[in-house]
C-alpha cells in the first residue's frame, strides 16, 4: 500500500480490504465453536461471523462507529483460530485490523496511543530508561512478590491489584551484548541478524543471551543492530496504521544495511510481523521478498541449521510441556521444531498437554486492555498445564510467558515458564558446550 496517500484514500483502502475478506463469509457459524472470546461471552458481536456482519454494515453506511461497535471490534485476540478453521478461507482478524485502522482515520489516534506509538517507541530511549528505573525499584524498594505493598497503586495505572509483573532488566540486552558477536569454534558460517524484540531487550535478557550463545557456539556470527525498534505489532493491533508502517520501514531499511544471511527472532509476534505483516505496509518488491525470506524463528533456525550432537547436551531433570503461541503455530506454521528441540535434551520428560495450541489469552496488549477476560481465557490453559503434571512450561512468546506465569502464580501453581531456547542453552551450558 502506498505510504504517501491522503487519509481519505487510506480510509477507503482499509474498507476495501476489509470487504475483500468479509464478502467471502458464508455465515456458517463454525467460528463460534473455536473463538476463545466467544466462548467466554457467547456474544455474536464478538465472534468472526458477527464481526463480518458488523464490517459489512459499516462499509455500506448502515452503521456508524459507536462505542458498542468499537468495543466489539476491540474484542479480538488476533489468535487466528477462526481463520485456520474457516471453510470459506476468511481471515476475520484482518477484517478487525482494517476496521481498527479505519476507525483511527475517522476519529484520530488517542493521545496516549500517539504518545506511546509515535514518540516513545520511536525514540526508544525513554522506554529503556523507564524500564531501568522500574527494574531498580523492583529490586530495591518493593520486589515483585505477592506481598508487595505497591500493588495497591496498580489500579491507578489501570492494572489489576493481583497482577504479577515480570522482573524487568536493569540493563537492556542491546546495551549488554556487543553489536557484533563473533562466531566461536572455527571459521564463520553465516552472518545472522538478531531482532531482539522489546521484551527480549528489556525483560527477558537471558533469552537474548541464550540466542547469542547458542548461535555463536555453532559457528555463526550474530549481529544485533542497535538502532532496531519495535516490530510494530502492538501498534498495528491498536489501530495505528501509520505508526506501524513507520516502524516496519525503519527495521526493513536498517537490517538491509548489514549484509545478513539470515535474521532470527525469539518472539512469535516479531517473527510473524517480519515475515508476513510487513508485506501489508511496504510495497512488494524483490528486496522485500529477499528480506522476509531470511527471517526465521529461533526454534526453526536451530532445527534447520545447527547440528547439535547428543554428547554436546547436558542433563536437565525436568518434566516439560509446550504451549504453542498463536503467532507461531498459526501465524508461522511452526509446531514440531520446538518440541523436537525439547525432546533432544537429556533428562527432559516431555508431555503433550491438552489444547496446547489454544490461545492463552495474552494477545500482546489485549491482556493490558482486557485483563479480566484474558485471565478467564488463561484459566483454561492453567488447568491443562496442571493436568499435564509437569514442572516446566516451555514456549516461544514473551507475552505468553508473562501471562501464563502471572496466572500460575495466582493459582499458587508450582510450574516455571521458560523459552525453549533458554532450556536448550541451559543444557549446552550444563555440558560446557557453550
Ligand atoms: S467460519 Fe468463516 S465462513 Fe463460517 S461464519 Fe465464521 S468467518 Fe464466516
Ligand atoms: S482471531 Fe481469535 S479472538 Fe479474534 S475473532 Fe478470530 S478466533 Fe475470535
On the 0 to 100 scale, the average pLDDT is 93
Bound molecules: iron/sulfur cluster
| Count of beta strands | 9
Any idea what the shape is?
A: globular
- Under CATH at level 1, the class of the domain at 310-430 stands as Alpha Beta
Q: Looking across the biggest beta sheet, what order are the strands in? A: 1-3-2-4-5
What kind of sheet is the major sheet?
A: 5 strands, mixed
Distance linking N and C termini: 45 Å
What do you see in this structure?
The protein has 434 residues and is α/β, with parallel strands linked by helices. Among the domains are: 7-107, Orthogonal Bundle (Fumarate Reductase Iron-sulfur Protein, Chain B, domain 2); 310-430, Rossmann fold (3-Layer(aba) Sandwich). The chain has helices spanning 7-22, 36-41, 48-60, 67-74, 81-85, 92-107, 111-123, 125-142, 173-176, 197-202, 205-217, 233-237, 241-255, 268-281, 286-293, 298-305, 326-329, 336-344, 366-369, 371-388, 398-410, 420-430; strands at residues 180-181, 191-195, 221-223, 262-265, 295-297, 319-322, 349-350, 392-395, 416-419. It has a 5-stranded mixed β-sheet. The chain has a 4-stranded parallel β-sheet with strand order 7-6-8-9, with helices on both faces. α11 (205-217) crosses α22 and α14 (268-281) packs antiparallel against α15. The protein is globular. The model has no long low-confidence stretch (mean pLDDT 93). One iron/sulfur cluster is lined by residues 34-37, 48, 76-82, 92-93.
Amino acid at each position: 500500500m502506498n505510504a504517501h496517500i491522503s487519509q481519505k484514500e487510506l480510509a477507503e483502502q482499509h474498507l476495501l480490504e476489509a470487504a475483500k475478506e468479509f464478502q467471502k463469509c458464508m455465515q456458517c457459524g463454525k467460528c463460534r465453536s473455536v473463538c476463545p472470546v466467544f466462548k467466554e461471552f457467547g456474544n455474536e458481536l464478538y465472534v468472526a461471523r458477527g464481526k463480518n456482519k458488523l464490517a459489512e454494515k459499516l462499509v455500506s453506511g448502515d452503521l456508524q462507529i459507536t462505542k458498542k461497535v468499537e468495543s466489539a471490534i476491540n474484542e479480538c485476540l488476533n489468535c487466528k483460530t477462526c481463520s485456520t478453521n474457516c471453510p470459506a478461507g476468511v481471515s476475520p482478524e484482518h477484517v478487525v485490523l482494517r476496521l481498527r485502522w479505519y476507525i483511527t482515520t475517522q476519529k484520530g489516534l488517542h493521545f496516549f496511543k500517539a504518545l506511546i506509538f509515535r514518540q516513545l517507541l520511536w525514540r526508544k530511549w525513554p522506554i529503556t530508561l523507564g524500564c531501568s528505573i522500574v527494574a531498580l525499584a523492583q529490586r530495591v524498594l518493593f520486589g515483585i512478590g505477592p506481598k508487595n505493598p505497591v500493588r495497591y497503586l496498580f489500579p491507578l495505572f489501570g492494572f489489576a491489584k493481583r497482577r504479577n509483573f515480570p522482573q524487568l532488566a536493569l540493563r537492556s540486552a542491546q546495551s549488554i551484548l556487543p553489536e557484533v558477536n563473533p562466531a566461536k569454534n572455527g571459521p564463520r558460517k553465516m552472518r545472522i541478524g538478531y531482532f531482539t524484540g522489546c521484551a527480549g531487550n528489556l525483560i527477558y535478557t537471558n533469552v537474548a543471551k541464550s540466542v547469542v550463545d547458542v548461535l555463536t557456539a555453532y559457528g555463526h556470527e550474530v549481529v544485533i543492530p542497535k538502532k532496531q525498534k519495535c516490530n510494530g505489532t502492538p501498534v498495528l493491533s491498536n489501530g495505528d496504521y501509520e505508526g506501524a508502517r513507520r516502524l516496519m520501514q525503519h527495521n526493513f531499511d536498517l537490517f538491509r544495511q548489514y549484509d545478513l544471511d539470515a535474521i532470527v527472532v525469539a518472539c512469535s509476534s516479531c517473527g510473524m510481523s517480519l515475515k508476513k505483516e510487513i508485506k501489508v505496509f511496504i510495497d512488494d518488491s524483490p528486496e522485500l521478498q529477499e528480506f522476509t525470506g531470511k527471517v526465521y524463528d529461533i526454534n526453526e533456525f536451530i532445527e534447520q541449521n545447527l547440528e547439535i550432537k547428543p554428547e554436546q547436551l547436558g542433563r536437565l531433570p525436568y518434566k516439560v510441556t509446550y504451549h504453542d503461541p498463536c503467532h507461531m503455530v498459526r501465524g508461522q506454521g511452526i509446531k514440531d521444531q520446538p518440541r523436537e528441540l525439547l525432546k533432544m535434551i537429556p533428562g527432559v520428560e516431555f508431555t503433550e498437554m491438552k489444547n496446547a495450541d489454544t490461545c492463552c489469552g495474552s494477545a500482546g496488549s489485549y491482556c493490558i486492555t482486557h485483563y479480566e477476560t484474558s485471565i478467564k481465557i488463561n484459566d483454561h490453559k492453567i488447568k491443562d498445564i496442571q493436568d499435564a503434571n509437569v514442572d516446566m512450561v516451555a514456549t516461544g512468546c514473551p507475552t505468553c510467558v508473562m501471562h501464563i506465569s502471572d496466572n500460575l502464580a495466582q493459582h499458587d501453581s508450582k510450574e516455571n515458564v521458560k523459552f525453549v531456547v533458554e532450556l536448550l542453552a541451559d543444557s549446552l551450558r550444563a555440558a560446557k558446550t557453550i
